[in-house]
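Subject: Ubiquinone biosynthesis O-methyltransferase

B.,
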Amino acid sequence: MTNADPQELAKFGELAHRWWDPESEFKPLHQINPLRLAWIDGLCPLKGKTVLDVGCGGGILTDSMARKGANALGIDLSTKPLKVAQLHAMEAGTENVEYREIAVEALAAERPASFDVVTCMEMLEHVPDPSSVVRALGTLVKPGGWVFLSTLNRNFKSFMLAIVGAEYVLKMLPAGTHEYARFLKPSELAQFCRDAGLELHSSKGLTYNPLTQRYSLGSDTDVNYLLACRRPL
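Prediction pasted inline below.
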C-alpha cells in the first residue's frame, strides 16, 4: 500500500491552482520559504548539489533550491500540484528542476544514496506512517549528505496556535488543514531519524508574530520546528 492519505491528496489537489498565489491559502508557505531556504543553504550550500524535495506540492521550495544552483527533483503523490509546479518552472524559466509523481519509498528503492540534500517540509503530519518516510529519506541521501525536515510539535500550545488560532481565528489556513493526532514531538521525529541511520545535527523553531505578521527562526520549537540531520560517511 502507498503511504498516503487519499483525503489529504485530494485536499491539496483542489487548491493546486492557487499554489503560486502569495495571497492565497498558501501564503504561509510563501512567507516561510525564504527562512527555510536560507537555513538549508547556510548549513549546506546548494549550488551544484543534487537535491530531492519530498512532498513538494506546487514546488515553492523545490523551485527556490534550483534557483540557488541545485539540480532539484521534486516528488509528490498529488497530481494537480505537480502539474502546477511543472507549469511554473516552464513559465519562470527555472533550470535544473524536474518533478515526478512517485512515492518516496518507491524512489528510495530505485535511487538509493543518490542525493546530496533531501528535504521533507510540512509533509510528515499529512501521511499515515511518517517513520516510513524518514527511513526512505535516510536511504535516498548519500553518505555525508544532509536531510532537512519540518513538521508540527504535539502539545496543547501547538493545538491552540496551529489549529485553533491559525485555522479558525486568524484563518491563515483552511479549516481542517491539520489533524492534531498526526503532529510529532521532536523526540519522536529524532528517534525516527536515528532509526533511519541519520545523525541529528541541529534544530530550529519557527514562530509567527500575529502583530507584525512575520515569521522567524529561533529556539522556540513548541509549535513548528525544523531538524537538520546527516548520514554518516
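The CA atoms of residues 24 and 76 lie 20 Å apart.

T.
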